[in-house]
Sequence to fold (776 residues):
Amino acid sequence: MRKTARWGIRIVAVGCLGVVLWLGYLWPRVVGLLSLDQTHHGWTFPSILYSDWLILEKNKPISVEQIERHLKRAGYVLSPKPLPQPGAFFVQMPRLIIHLRAFSIPNRRDSFQKEQFLQIEESQDAIEKLEASADGTHWTETASARLEPAPITRFYDQSFENREFVRPERIPVLMGKAVVAVEDRRFFTHWGWDPRGMGRAALQDLRQGRLSQGGSTLTQQLAKNIFLTRQRTFWRKILEVFASMLIEMRYSKDEILGLYLNQVYLGQDGPVSISGVESASRHYFAKPAADLDLAQCATLAGLIRSPLLYSPTAHPDLCVERRNSVLNKMREQGFITSRQEREAEAEPLELSMPKSRADAASLYFVDHVRALLLERYSASALTSQGLKIFSSLDPFLQEGAEDALKNSTHEVALVALDPQTGMIRAMVGGRNYVKSQFNRATQAKRQPGSTFKPFVYAAALEDKEKGWTLAGLLNDSPIHLRVPGQETLWTPKNYDGTFRGRVTLAQALMHSLNIPTVILTQSISPEKAVALAHRLGIDSDIQAVPSVGLGTSEVTLLELTSAYGVFATSGMRTKPLSIKAIYDHNGNLLEEAEFEPQQVLDAMTAYLINWTLNQAMIQGTAQAAITLGMTGGYAGKTGTTDEGKDAWFIGYSPKIVCGVWIGDDTPRASGLTGPSHALPLWMSFMKRSGLERSAQSFEIPQGIQFKKIDQTSGLLARSGCPDVATMPFAGDTFPTIYCPNHPGGVIGLLRRWFGSTQSIPMRPPSPLVPKLPHKT
Fold:
């Protein structure tokens, strides 16, 4: 018994010694709490995510207002002087003068911006004149210029914490009283911990058999959030009490309250955590905390219990109800009068959140980049190491993407990337980030419909054994297929419900015919189509079934758009890229993106697809682009799923590839179509970005030959053939026989003149028309 007692005394002594040592270690940190504002935000050194350079070019459709917005994001200020200081700009419409400051990205080629003056003249929302000057007096016209990357966001912690430290004396007294009234009513009388509150919480824990009630005072919450973990244990509770007592010994109640209000979590701005009363005041009311009135103080105090449940933006009615409850408790405790309570309750909930922040669709891109960063860096590194991350996002194209999609009545997504480098230039993951942070460009997997067809046709065109060419004939007539696992026969149909007889591969793809696509898939085997899609960058699981060419397997918009980039670059694949370089806070390069294009598709095969999809925009399913103002040589493919649940369009040139999806998160019959819904959104983006007239021609690879083909026979055309198209062929794969069905010369001329209706015997079906097990 004595031995047990001695061991008990020793354990208690060791425990006490441990607590004393821990308190000795903690004391200097407690003393330094109020000096945290000297390091700006104090608790963290946030990493910064930057956009790419903003390129300015003569005739580029960008307005002075848009350039101003980028300059302000980059930290430039408006100057009243025509020759502003470095880092400032002067506006006298339609002229904008910028004094560019010297800027460089270390260790990167072509990354230096020298200090100089830049003068821009606008005409009809486009750059009419662009001049540069070293001293602001001698101007030289220039074809292009660059504006330095602007910060997109700061990574404060795992939730993108946004905090602005404010001295306790700058926080309204009513703010502190509102918090005390609802969070710790005995705050001004206890010494850091409240025995009554802890006893009540302990009884509740005993009843539930677990630690569920904290019973923590404001001081304990402050100690826990700064010095301890959030793990619920009795040992942590003991340490929390001792740390709270140290804080109470060092600071006054007002100072403690001020420290608490600097770290408390008060809501979300998209992915960004709003921490501290100063940042919350600026976010919700666009004013510093010092200017908050009683109703606004009560509103913020009411958020502490559940910032998401009582969110002023998501649940304004609950927010007002909670605010009024706070006012009632303040009146009960004598902090305010009944009259003050009534007047504050009558005040409407007026928010002044900056729209550019709340509606910023670029936050979908931010989330995408953050996920990639967290694969390589810890959350604490992003919080504390002050990394500088330069992204691929083009601020001008991003703004165009956001404007193009903002009025959609359905959910939407857009990805635009440079197919040469894989750099993602714009990304929108939904119509409203505040309401839903789900990124439909990278996370949503949906059936792509007919936008998957080019992979089937590319697989057929590169299949030397089958010998398919764009002039090869396919049957467009009813078929019935037996699909493994299904009892009934499958009867595919064309979208318009009509049949065209025999058609060429080119016609089948540019007019997006389903039945010929199914026949072609069976001819080469679904497995080959799946293998090619994976080779071009589709990472999602694709089922090798007869319907694969109709887009029955789900993919993401990003991977589909990136795969189309292989066609745009003559068969070269570059993986999607969103981070160009990362530096530490001293400017040392940590990592840099490497462009490693790989030849994954024969250049001639890629060109055959490009030519056909260009024709689709001229005379096929995407010809609405011409009506909407397209004049460039783009290629593109529409896609529509059953009952119009999803609509797609992927359009591209060697310079840009852009994919658009529109639909609903819960798939439902909406009557959406690629030509009527997705294509106009794509066109809107192209116009806003000035890309609809600037498409580069697709390079014609060596070995491509063009021949005039009779589209009814798939053979070389004669002068008498009524339906002729000039088609490209890879090498010598073109037909060598002339069409026997439409005589040329005098006989053909007489037949056309006199309208002979005598039928001309068709040649036997081409061996390129596959024989399939089907019933007619």
The chain has 24 helices and 30 strands. The mean pLDDT is 82. The longest helix spans residues 2-31.
